[in-house]
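Table S2 (continued). Query chain:
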Amino acid sequence: MIETDILIVGGGPAGLSVSAQLKGLSSVLVHQDREIGKPVRTSGGSWLADVERLGIPEDLYQRVDQLDVFSDTRELSVDIRDAPCVVLDITRLYQWLASKATSEIHCATKFLRTEKVEGGYVSTVRTPGKGEWQIKSRQIVDASGWHCIVLESLGLNTKPVRDAVGIEYEYPVENFDMNRAILFFGSFALSGYGWAFPTNYGTIRLGVGVIRPASDESPRDMMNKLLASNQLARMGIPAPEGEHVNAGTIPSVAYEKELVYGDVIRVGDSANMATPTLGEGLRICIEQGRLLGDALSKQTPRALKAWERQANGTLALKYRVGFWVNQAAAKYTTANWERSLKRMEKLPPAELMAYFKNDFSTGMIVRRVALLVWRKMKDRVRGVFGGKV
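Corresponding output:
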């Protein structure tokens, strides 16, 4: 058994960011994968203003100035030079975050269980060639992603019953505008969406994702259907050749305000911090991880509760609205997506990107609530008059 102040479970952006901000405390970080940043489990989409604010180096991302949005028959090109997106180099980003970590990092180490003991927790982990061993800690940070493995082990919470699952082919390309990103909605990703993102090292990431259990179709089957269609040529995406396959899962459930369970704290995907609209959360995981690391360093329950209030104030309302959007979109038919893209064409680029970013202003929230109320009233009226209204 080894002893430490804080055990961090998970070597993704949230866990690594917590570690980087810890001061005056010993910590151990366990990560189930063999390497930090491999395999890749996220598409890497984010926003230039946020990555600059977080101090992420320019050589770790590709800037995107044009976003093309497609349904089965419609298309929309959006000039986003005033608010550019980026595509992050996931492996190098995670390794950069790890270089700043203060923890003793153990890769290829699977968290198995934990139990409450006097003075903290004793957690059992397993490392190939070493077998099972134990870590005694005063506090635990659950940054294990959608597994919520620490919370489940202690009976504090459970992993989500609704999630978003994606598959992505990454492959080298020529004659593709690397300042252009693509989103597509409709029959090839009906309950979710698809994407084609350029990287800063000459590849694109072509992916599709679905919401389970809203759809029972597998992402791989949808990818195969997409590749057999003429949609790639229509969208100007080169066909995969020499591809590497990435895959990932994130929670797709409503945001929950309880983040601090005494001396067990959750952050990142364990706390449902990916945006409900597009499921991107790297910038949020890094920011909230850093703020949690600062709070832990103060070594007071009051500091942790202050962090929880800050996170809720930043995320809760916008995520509630975003989850309404998520639930509605998961039920869309191809006809719904055709109408949705037609509505997108009428929005100013800044407002459309705010929707995608899940950055709802007060006016946008009011309009969204009014639309939901109107739709419910219309459905009730139709029910009374036999669908004639």
